[in-house]
Structures are given as C-alpha cells and as structure tokens.
Queue: 2 jobs
Job 1
Amino acid sequence: MQKLTGIAASSGVAIAKAFVHEEPDMTIELKEVQDPTSEVDRLYAALAKSKDELSVIKDKTEKDLGADKAEIFAAHLLVLSDPELVDAVKGKITDEKQNAEYALNEVATMFITMFENMDNEYMKERASDIRDVSKRVLGHLLGIQTQSLATISEETIIIAEDLTPSDTAQLNPVFIKGFATDIGGRTSHSAIMSRSLEIPAVVGAKEVTAQIHTGMTVIVDGLEGLVILDPTEDEIAAYTKKRDDFAKQKAEWAKLVNEQTTTKDGGHVELAANIGTPKDLEGVINNGAEGIGLYRTEFLYMGRTELPSEEEQFEAYKEVVERMEGKPVVIRTLDIGGDKELPYLDLPKEMNPFLGFRAIRLCLEEKEIFRTQLRALLRASAFGNLKIMFPMIATLDEFRQAKAMLLEEKDKLVADGSSVSDSIEIGMMVEIPSTAVAADLFAKEVDFFSIGTNDLIQYTMAADRMNERVSYLYQPYHPAILRLVKMVVDAAHNHGKWAGMCGEMAGDEVAIPLLLGLGLDEFSMSATSILPARNQLLELSKEELATFSSEMLSLDTAEEVEQRVRETYMK
C-alpha cells in the first residue's frame, strides 16, 4: 500500500480499478509541401471537424452542467476562428511551404509560451485553451483517433497527468467514479467540473501517472486529498465505510432543503447561491437556496462576437427573478477586465489588468454599455425581488456616479410608462482593502455590502491567487482578512444595513464559524455547498461565536486561527 498526497478538488470517496489516460503520440515532422492550396484545405477540414466536435461537447456540457461551464467550449470555438492563429498557420503553409500539422504546432506553441509567461489568470487559462484546441486539430491532421473517456462502460478511476475541459466534460458519473491527476488546483477547469458532476477528485498529486498502472485498484479520497495505491482488504473496508458514511451524510443534508437556516441559539442567517446564468437555477432550487447572492452577468457577454441586446439581458434577468419567486436576487453589474476579456471590445492590453481598467471603471467610461444593462435590470425588477450591486468600487464618487446613472435610467423608463420596482436595494462589492477600511463612509449611502473575498484576499496579501509560487499567501483565515470583514459588517450594522459575502470563503467550513461570529448576515456560495453549510450552522451558536471570533482577531497567524476553529468546532 502506498499513499500519494494531492489537493482535494471534489468531495467524496471512490474505490475502483484505475484507467491511465495516456496522451497519444503526436510526433510531428517538418515536410515541404508541393501544393500549399491543398494543404490549406486540409487545415480547414481539420478545423471544421474540430468545430463540429466542440459544438457537440458544448451543447452536452450546457445541458448537464449549466451554461457557465459550457462557456469554456464557447471560448475554444472562438480560438478555432481566431484570425491571429489561423492566418499565422496559413501563412506558414503558403509562404514557407510547411505541412499543416507542423505549421499549426509551431504557431500554437508560440502562443502557448507567450500566454503562459504572462502574470495574468485569464491569459494562462487561454494558454490551456489553445493547447486543448490545437491538440484536437492536430489529431485530425495526423489521423490519430484520440482516446475517448465517454466510451468507458465499467466502474473506473481515471488517472492522468491532467484532464482538459474536453476530457472532463465527457465523464459519465455512472462509470467514472473518480479521478486523480499529477497537476492542477482547486480552481482549474477540471476541478470545477468534477464538483458539478459530484465525482470525487484529487488533483496535483504529482506522481499518480508514474506510480499507477491500468487495472490497479485505487482509492481516491476527495475529502482529504489522498490517493491510495493497491489498498489492503482492511483499507478497502475502511474506505468503503467512509464512502457510505459520506453518502448518508449527504442524504441527511438533503432533508434540510426546504428548511430555513437557523443557528443553535435560534438566530437566522441567509444562505444564498452564486450563479452565472439562468440555467444554473435548477441546482440552486434543488439545494434549497434562500436567494441568489451573486448573479455574475458577465457570462451573458462572453463566448460571443457582439454585445448582448437590452432585450436579451432583460429576458435573462427576468427569468431568474421570476423563478426565485420573491426570494432576493442580487445581480452584479458587468465585471469585465482582469481575467475576463471580451475580444469584440478590443480593449488595450495592460501590464496588470487586475489593477487596471475593469468592472465599474470600464462601465463608467463605456456609458452606453452600462446604461443598456441598467435599463434591462430595472425592467426586470418589476418581476421579483431584484437587488443591484456594483463591482470593484474604490471611491465614493464611483458609487455615486453609478447610482446616479441607474436613477437616471429609472426616471426615463417610468416616464415612458415602463414598470419598475420602487424598492430596489442598491449595494456594492467590497473587494478593495481601502474600501473595507472606509466602510463606515460607504455605509451611509449604500443599501448593502457584499464582500468579494477572492479579490479582497489577493489584494490585501499582494499575492496573485493563481500564482503557485505565492499561493501560500492566499490565506482567508489571516487575522488581517478577518479584521477587514469585521470592519465591513460593523459599518453596515451601525447604519442599519446588511452585509453579505459572495467569495469562496462564504462556503468554507472553517470560515463559517468565524463569519457567523463576526455577524455576517448573508452567505452566498456554490449551490452544492448550501446544504452542508446549513447543517453546520445548526450546531453553531451565534452568541457564543461572537466572543470566539473576536478572540481570533488577536492571534498571530492564519494557521493558529484554523487550528483553533478545528479544535473547538470541528471535532
């Protein structure tokens, strides 16, 4: 028996025979072509086949996992049509007489290397997209039948160096009981998809492909981030019990789906869900969310060639507020820039886009784009309990400008006879440390705060959360982060307002006791985290945790805070 340690990417325990997913041999030789026109035709035929395949995968992913997961493949389809890539390959064929596969590999490798060397999450993901797409096209050019995981028809654990989005989208949970990879992290595409599919997964285990062979019995412990090789009968029995206990626990959580979120001492907090599109609502409703705490509207703008119309946006927002049947729906205005680009806007490249022209900064300059969205939101407000929040607010003047534009559009709509709600709450994201520190000033003018911890943590610690070399600094339990959260919550309450959180931290089982004690009113998280969080909160006393959380603010390190929480509330 041997244990390998990795990152717990998706909860659960899987026990099955391993299937090692090997990359095909795509050795490429340079050949001089005599007929460049025919070679270009061969390239276009391979591109067309790839587009057809990706369209099928995109549709299947949208049906099975939701539109936000399918956006990965919308991006892949855009890569296949990107003139910068396609024209560069065509140029090497026609001008340098290179064969199509060699030309494609040369151009793709150049783009991959360029994007990987950029200190930017979006660009690094784009490198992964190009790698995945170019491999598919090369397979067609070389006549290689790539290994399809969709055809597996017996209980199996997939072992791979990495799984591309295309690979993961093909996994059938009936037969694929889990997977483990050499590389990757919790925020990789494959990890996100594994959680949606509820397939136990361990990523970043480094040596799984070197140590495991097809047919070997393997255990994937997605609860603790372990991969057990050739387990003994006793270990199989122990992990079978652990798997069954987790299944029973999930069944107990399911009983809470229609319950309010109540603490041990009778208090109430709101558990809401984060969504990207209306198609995500099924999971939200099935998991008993008490509202939508974050509707990321940028997915309406991505994976397409032009801006969405006002009518298109209105229909999407209206569908969400109607289906939530009076429960609160917090919709964030457009948050583009940083790691999310819109190719059709042709925005200038920036050295540090996370600190640059993005979110509200873009909207206040691109006023017509912003006003179109505001009108769609205002019209949808007549159909349910809609709240609007602005992202990346750094100054009071930004909030005032955004709110003024919203109210101007409201007056125009009312004057034109359109129905608009009279009780729309207008709030803001707290993602910038200076905003948290000055929360008492903002609290006088906002209706609510929503703390975006993903950005707040990386800005506070000056550490890109996607950079593995500084990932140790992504510390949600650090006393500095907890103090900023307390400032925001206290400022809200002192002015009779409410404070929520929509970052990853809100659904973190270690953070939940701390946030409850700090007085957070609303926790917004992925839909699959809601029932475990509700179950956890049943056992926690808000009054008792107020004292405990206050004590945590004076500890020295994040490690000390986590240890105290685990010892006291997670035995």
Note: The chain has three domains: 2-22+148-234, 36-142, 267-569.
Job 2
Amino acid sequence: MDKKRGSREYFEGVAKFVEFASLSARNGKILCPCVKCVNLISVLPNVARDHCWASGMLNNYKVWKFHGESTAATTATVCGSSHVQETLNEYGDFRGMLHDLCPPHEMAPEPMEEGPTVQHVDEGMNDEANKFYKMIDDVDKPLYEGCTKFSIFSAIVVLFQLKTLCGWTNKSFTMLLQVLKDLLPSDAKLQKDHYEAKKIIQDLGLGYEKIHACPNDCMLFWKDNVNLDACPCCTASRWKTNEASVASKNASSTKGKKKAAKILRWFPLKPRLQQLFLSPDLASSMKWHVHGRTDDGVMRHPADSEAWKMFDTKYLEFSSDPRNVRLGLAADGFNPFGIMSTSDSTWPVMLVPYNLPPWLCMKRSSLILSAVIPGPTSPGLAIDVYLQPLVEELRELWDVGVQAYDASSKEIFQLRVALMWTINDFPAYADLSGWSTKGGLACPSCAMETDSRYLKNGHKFCYMGHRRWLDVDHNFREEVASQIIPDTEHFVGRCLGRKCQLAYNKRKRGEADQSGWKKRSILFTLPYWEDHKLRHNLDVMHIEKNVMDNILGTLLNLKDQTKDNYKACLNLADMGIRTELHLQRRSDDKYIIPPACFHMSSSERDGFLQVLKDVTVPDGYASNISRRVNMKERKISGLKSHDNHILMQQLFPIALRESLPSHVTRPLIKLACFFREICSKTLSVLDIVTVEADITVTLCELEKIFRPSFFTVMVHLVMHLAAEAKIGGPVHYRWMYLIER
C-alpha cells in the first residue's frame, strides 16, 4: 500500500490481498478497501481489485480485520496515521463506531473492462454519505503533525464524552477549547468553540427536534398548528414576553429573535432503534428473548411473563420476527440543578428495550431518551399533549415499521415496535393512566370496588377491609378496555391545559365524583393498547419506601411521621371499634393515649436502634445506614429509597426480634419476607400464588395491630403486587430505581 500506485509491486500486492480476502468472502463478495468504498460496500473480488488499482487502497488499512486477518497476528506499524489509529484503541474504536453508524451494503456488480479501470462510486452520493466519508478522513488525520494519541474526530468525541460525564456547561466547554488551542501547536485542527465542535457530533446523527408548546400545556405548535402565534384554547402567546420586548413593541424595527415560552425536546425514535441493530453483538442480543432465553417455567425476564405470552399469541405476525422491539415507557420529574428549593423541574420520558438479556436490559446505556418535557411544574394530565410525537411514531412503527439493517445476519428487514407498559411512581401513574390516585377510589387495581373510609379527625382516607381477599382463589381485577372506553368517552377531545382543567374542576365542584377517571389516556390510540393485560405498573420501589416509613415512624413514634396520635384515637371512637385504644381521660381537661401493643419502651427502642447503629455493610451494597441513626434523640432519619429497601428485606427483621411481642413482630417479619420474595430475580407462578395468599393474611393481622390511619393507599397497594408480578414478571424490570438514578 506504500508503493507507488501503478507500479508492478503495487499491482502484485493488490492481487495478493484479493487472493487472501477471497478466503473469507461472504456470498462470494468482500468489502472493498479502496479509498472510495472505504470497506463499506460489498463487491466481487475482481471488482475490489479493479477499484484498488484505479483509486488506490486505504493507506492506513494495515491490519485487514474486515477480511479475515487477526489484529494479534500482525505487528504494529509505527508510522503516519496507522499509528494514530492503533494507539487510539485505549480511547475507543472510532472507525468501528462509524462503521456501526453506516454498515456495509451491497452494490450490484457492473461489467468491468480489462485492466485497471473502475467506475467511480462517489457519483450520485447524497449529503449523508459525503458527511460520513469526511468523518472517515477525520478519523485518520492526526490532530496535529506528530500527534499519536488523537485524531481530529476522536479528540472532539472524547472531549464531549467528558463534558457529559462531568456535567460541563457549554460555556466551560468553549473556554476549555480556547485554552487547548493555546496549549497545542499552531497547526492543531481543534474547533474554536462549543458550537463548531457540536457540528461534528451532529453528523453522527441522534439529534433532537424542538417543538414549541403552549405555556399552559394546552397544545403543541406542531404539524397543522406550526404557524400559530397563540394557543386557540387559552389564547396564551407562543412567545416569551418581557419588559424589553414590550418597550420595543411599537418600534419601527425589532432586533433579535423571538423566544418560545415553552419547548419540548423530542428525540425521534426510529434512528435510535435502527442503531440497536448496527452493532453485530447488540443485534444478536436484541434477539436473545427468543434464541437465548431458557423457557423452563421460571420467570427471569418479561418474556417469561403472562402479559408477554398473551401478546405473542394475539399478534402472531408481530411475534414471528424476534427482532421486533418491545418497549417500556418511563416518565419521572427531577430537578436538573440538584437544588430542592429551585422550582425548575424537568420531565424526561425514557424507553426501555425489553428484547435485551437481563444483563443489558436495565442498564443505563440501554435506556432510550424519547422526550424532555419542560418545567417548572409537572405536566399532570397534560403529559398526553407532550407524548403526541412519540405516540404517533409508535403507531407508525406498529402499522408500517421502519427499514433497518441487521448487522448480525447482514440483512435488511422491516422493524416494528410495540409498547408493553409504563413505569412510573404513583402520582405519575394518575397522569399517564387517567385514573385519579387520590380520594376514596385511589387504588387503580380495585377501581370502583376500592374499600376506603374517610377519617374525619385525620382528614384523610384509610384503606382497610383486606378480609375480602381471604379466599385464595380471588382473581386480580383487570381493567377491561371495553369498560374503560365508554367510561372515558366524555373526556375525548377535552383540553388538558392548566387553565382549561381549572375551569372544568370549578364547574364540577360540589358534584359527587362517581368515577375515578380524569381523562382517556393517549396510549389508547395505539391499536394494541386495549389488549394489554398490564398497562401501568405499580412501582414497588416507592411502595416499599412508603410502607417502611409508616412502620418506622409509628414504632419509633417519630414526630410528624407516626400514624399513632390523638387524632388516630378519635378515629377509633368514631368508628366504634377497639375501645381499649380510645383516648383515656386523666382529668377534666387532659387525655392520654393508651399504650398499644406496638409501643416500644425506651430500652426496647434503644436496642432496636443500636442494632442498626452497629450495622456495617459491604462497599456498594448500601449507603452507611448507621449514620442515619441518632441514639440521643432515639430516631432514624434521612433514609433514601434504597436504604428502605435494605432495611425492609435484610435489617429490619433482625432488629425487630427482641423489641416487641411475637404477635406483633410475626406479621411485620412476614411483610418483610413478602417484599423479599416479590423482589427476587427469579419467580415461579406457584410461589407467587402462595405469597399472594400469605400477604392477605398478613394485612389482616396488621389491621388487628395498628390504627386505621396506618393503612394509607401505599399499604393497601401491597395487596396487588403479587398479582402484577404474576402477570408482568420480575419487578426489577418494572420499578423506578433505574429511572430515578
């Protein structure tokens, strides 16, 4: 390749290369390594030979890894750009990354004349191809003369990766580039600012679109409404208004660009799904749920679940191709600045590809960011407005699909997609499903059959009556679409914006709430959504945390957290039950709360907390829980969700044993065992049926111990977790830990 093109040595070398490459030909074709095809086009060996004779062979292609040669079998050539490419391996295979973005494709062979002549393959190339070939050139060009560590392309990619990992601002990134330009030699090909550097990254694809939204969440200025300047529902302006703009309103000419009041960032799904199949290893992993999964009746993955199998049975055409993708949708709000007092909240919408095996499925790298909904407040029911682009794309991916290239089988196929369910905390459950998770009908599983009672003294609802599930053969109540659709018919077409919602609620104030529905979810526009057996998941993470908070607050009598106070005693008197726990009069104007079986003495509380204080856990297993224990004030505070997870399933049963009577500790330990069983990595239907029957008895026993105020809706939802696990499979594919992290 270093010989002069046209020399006898060059012709003989190319002939020897073609002879070697033909040994690993696929369907009689090899990748062409000429400077025009750059190992992207599959051609016949004699065509590749003619291309290399006419245009020249890639000078840096020293290790013929695309033609059957092992990297280890060839000694490194320390010269020119090839040395740059080899030393770059410690930062990543950038050429391989570009090949994943644009995989090889076959070109129909054309009749070639004798001798070293060839038709130029760059004729008629589109802009995308030209961008790709320019990036290929940038991969091979050193950052400056003599640089052996970085090329023009790899330097920017590595810097952007550090920017993402370390949270650098755009301004700090520009300042860093300016300093690096002063430090590096004058011939360094480094961009001057963030804007110029971002252009290179944008050529890799995976960008996003900005869609303007109504400030009151009524609509998107999108498609037919893209040219409107004001919302037709609430008449709010599409643009930001400030004092400067008002002052210059009557001026003859205005400077500057209008700024949208609210912007949705939408990341199109199709290119991201296509890229899942561009890497041969990842493309193979996307078919694991059919070709790699062990089907022995044990649930280790959503593919083992009843919901997945039911969907496969109903939609045979979709399930016949293992490459068709099943997704889970997760949405949650967070503060991007990390300051609790700041009201600027952002709502990312993420997708989880469930085709992947367990060791890849719930990894951060597998998440697909679909949309970023702006703050500063939660979108509430209007989240449907912001999901419109995604839902429309999901419907198109179901009806038509998108053409994708499978790098593992080297073929083009029509990729289709189905959304399986949503993953969200309980408030977001209401926003996505349309069922109100507040009030007397707060349980979405029981729906209209929710057994609740309003506590007049506590001004809250309690959810008891678990005795109705004592029959082991009770069935999980399904939300049958044939019931949901007529119940939500009057919501179709109603504006979900904040002002419209306030006006609607004002008109309805004083009327009895006969239904828990607040809207019909936009997800029902997907043709298959009504056939799903499980549409929205109860989040085990938040339920476990809230139940643990209830227990600790009550047992340790923590201020503002205990469910055992004088109001709870008054509620018992109003209900006319458990007279031994009613308030007891000590004098004419003083009452005392009588001791209950779950009350700890000072010594028992000290013993309970001392066990937690002495706990030392392995690094990475949990946070330092002992630091959360305050022995002087006899309290525990500052626990995170995962701390409550470790407490409930591991530490709490141990610390509780010698602190309370056995008839109190027994159901609490059984509750901890229930969460441990539900959160297991593997589940069997028989085991789930057993724990479902046990948790019914456990909750009934807890009703005999604690006061009604203890039984919030989160405690009640424990009853439905086993049934959902039986339908949806292991909970660690359906909870919020990954999303919140």
Note: The first strand starts at residue 30 and ends at 31.
